[in-house]
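Protein 1 of 2
SEQ + STRUCT:
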Amino acid sequence: MIGYLVRRVGGAVLVLAGLSLLLYGLFYLAPSDPAILTCGKGCTPDRLAEVRHAMGVDQPVATQYAHFLHGLVAGRDYPAGAATRHCPAPCLGYSFETDQPVTQLLLDRLPVSASLALGAEVLALTAGIGAGVLSGLRRYRWLDRIVNGLVLAGFAVPVFLVGLLLLLLFCVQLQWLPFPSYVPLTTDPLAWAQNLLLPWVALAVIQTAAYARLTRAGIQETLAEDHIRTARAYGLPERRIIWRRALRGALLPLVTLTAIDLAAIMTSAVLTETMFGLPGVGQLLVGAVNQIDLPVVVGVTLLAGLLIVAANTVADLLYRAVDPRVELR
């Protein structure tokens, strides 16, 4: 187990380094100059040179990248007029647009995205696994056809349409819920859940459809295996066979899909965050791309890569917990 984790951590470091290097290369090949955007209209050449020096973009790309890597490990000093300011490790730099530390920007936005992702995943897993089990046990019957129809509808309906319908119905017509605005969980748990309920539902629709479809296929495949027939021949209760044996085997593909979905939602739920006005990481990324805010783009991308690598590692460990026959290599 320790050797496996060491290999995974080493691989994660290489993946994140490759991502950051690729981003630096792509953004510095772009024709736009972030210093010009930051300096604004009427910027003199002398002032533009000062801005470029303060932003650190007046140095060669290789030098900037080396300073970036050094800042992640040991922190970094930035010029601030006649003085300097220290950015402690892990330093992702300062935003070109707001001049705030990128690490702090991510920490401020991460609770919003984490709340959105976790709630949506809980709803999607609960509804998706339940629907998939019912559909798998009633193959080709009326319940199976109804679930399949709902699954296809879930795949076909876009998130923004579901979100718009939910807002019109529950916030405008019925007025059962307030228009969403993020409230920290530690401030008011009830208001936190009320404001995130509609975004959870909107985001969980497509995921529920995917989980239901995958669970249905897994249940049907597992029920056809020899060990299930053997368990029935020994007279084990059908409920125990389904929940202790069939469902356990069907959950293996769901583990990986859930881990990847959870990591992806936390950094890329742009439509949902925009529609419901949630200041999450997705909105931060869109604004940074529009403003060519390289430090923020690199920071969000590295966060996404870190979450996905960590999610895959956790999924592999859960594989072993669900099925002891799985070997970690």
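Protein 2 of 2
SEQ + STRUCT:
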Amino acid sequence: MSGVDDAALVEAYLAHVRIDKRLAARTVELYTGDLARLAQNAQSAGVGLRQVQSAHVRRWVAQMHSAGRSARGIALILSGWRGFYVWLGRQGLVTQNPVQDVRAPKAGKPLPKALGVDESVQLAAHVEEGDDPALEARDACITELLYGCGLRIGELVGLDVAASGTARGWIDLQAGEAHVLGKGSKRRSVPVGRAALESLQHWLAARPSIAGEDPALFIGRHGSRLTPQHIRVRLKRRSMLAGLSTPVHPHMLRHSFASHVLQSSGDLRAVQELLGHASIGTTQVYTRLDFQHLARAYDAAHPRAKGRGPAKS
């Protein structure tokens, strides 16, 4: 195949993945597009596909990144190119794979989704009149603790009614503190606010109507400890009944707790301790959320905000 031109090489490789490797038609279609891009790049650089070097590939990656291609999209394209050169190597047509040591740009971490203060209060204050009063009290308490304390869902379901030698977590009503077992089996104490304490007392008064022998703080109709999935379903339902524009999941309330505490206090170290993060770097993502909040406030209130952006030359 040493005298075969680039187009024929591509066709031979696509036949290989379609017939020999039996890849799905959609995958072959994607490879076809990726290799057409590779061939066009090589032609523009004035080289054949077998003469492509790592420097060429890095330049093309930079161009795709500058053009707005996502890190994941670039990684997939590189994977297709890499496979093509592996095959060329097996055919004895190249001595090295120019894509082997080229990596896509790192994908930026998406910001955690958090509710605004008004939405959080709307969800916490919602009362579903048609529900069983005990279940409504339970779901309201779950919402208040997730938002008011920033608990992880695993920490929440691990709470027992009372402290004991076997309890993973409990709430001290007198001290106003939740004692939880977090990641890495690390214990921490978190303040419980007035609204959450009132909601908890309301739930504890209603709990005996469905309680069994389970020591869990949060139980279902049959008296057994709630599972994380059960809480996710109930919270999503509650958010929709409360009229929120987006379904709410438990971790969203943890993000909301952290963002709102940071907005009010500006104390990143305190938020780190409240969340139980081992590293301050994990907590710093909320500074980006905080900046977004400040930017929105600026856009809404400042007389010079409209049309904010780069100056036109």
